[in-house]
Amino acid sequence: MRESVAEVGVAGSTFERVAAKADVSRGLLHYYFGTKERLLVEVIRRDTELRVETLGAAMRSARTADELIIAMSETFERTLREEQGYVYMISELYVAGRNSPELQRELGSLYSRARREFADILLAKEREGVVSLRFDAEATLAYMFGAGDGLTIQRLTDPTLDVVATMNAGLGVARWLLSPD
Description:
Elements: H1 2-12, H2 15-22, H3 26-33, H4 36-61, H5 65-82, H6 84-96, H7 101-127, H8 137-157, H9 163-178
């Protein structure tokens, strides 16, 4: 499903197409997932859980604010560079969620879970003296996620965007948000 969405979008990713790519029967997909939306939800849930685990581990091991920021930045950059299917799928699901309460609810739930988990890590890092939050932890993460999502959309639509300069600006903002020095 991820590859199909990256190639032809959500609308073009029919059970027939996905089944052919996966070399399974359409009936098997229908049996396990019921609808295309349910399959999309399961793929995005699994991918997001893996990212939350990976980034969470990197954030927990950070001993300085810069290590924490670099862990977040490297995860974002790696996703942009190596996981285009995921990037396109998330982008497509934003729009598809407008007409599908199930997709909208699931995306909202995934964002909420990620914000809570990472906020807990930020608060633990603040207690350890690694960071000093200027604002509420979840609000800070919502802002940072929003900046990342916006950069992703700009990168997908404008390949000439200077991602390095933009990321450097983002790192400066992250440092400001996480360390008031």
